Amino acid sequence: MTCQELDSILYPFLDGEFQPEERLEVEAHLTGCAECAQRVNMELRMQQSLRRAARHAVESTRAPDALRARIQLGIRQEQRRDTQMGWLRASAAAVVVLMAGGAWMALRPEQRQRFVDDAARRHARQLPVEVAGGHEHVEAWFDGKLDHRVSVPRLPNVQLSGARISNVTDRPAAYISYERNADKQGAPARRIGLFVFDDAKREVEAPPLPSVQVGSSHGYNVAVWRDEEIVYELVSDLDESDIRRMVAEQAAAKSRPSRPVSPDVAARPVALQP
Ligand SMILES: [Zn+2]
């Protein structure tokens, strides 16, 4: 069962309209998917408080006897359904307890792999860019299109070829496309895709710069890192060492003071500077 499938049956499921074997499927998904477990938990809590509020309203209102009897019958049915749903509440609670214990750490890499796979798949599709131009132009184009600000990293030795709006799993993301030209030593031109998305809740395990986690999927290397609440995923067929060097150089350039440095000093190796 996928997250989308669970999403489409969530409400009938919460209403207890499922057979035991269907429930098992849902339960299996909830054990492996922190996002959905959290969501189910939230829905359950919301339903409970709605019910409490309804009960309270009925108890505190003087309704005609016949109407009151009908409403109370409804509440009794609700209570029966409550018991049916006990198993779900228990299993959702178990998932939460698991997460509070060590299993949460085990779930997060799985979660990250989901994002790695999805980014690689989308990069492979080679979708056309929606905007081209310089870094500032592309950054300005993203303004207002996503909930988070997009800064376009200046990766060393590559050209910015453009950008588009995309997704990584269900997160709206900026997709920034770079190209490295073929060089004189015969290395072919390479395409580099960078996904940028908001992860304020820190659900994706991504190390803060200058650290970077490199995984692989669909024949691509995928580097993942975080800058506060923003997660970056760089997808490319470059070697892992090339990617690490590229990200490290970009991080170093970013943390350097933006005050312009005279070119002859900047070009000299650090050890030779007076
Ligand atoms: Zn899910």
From TrEMBL:
Residues 3-37 form the Putative zinc-finger domain. InterPro entries: Anti_sigma_zinc_sf, Znf_put. Residues 249-274 are annotated as: Disordered. Keywords: Membrane, Transmembrane, Transmembrane helix. The chain crosses the membrane at residues 86-107. This is Transmembrane regulator PrtR.
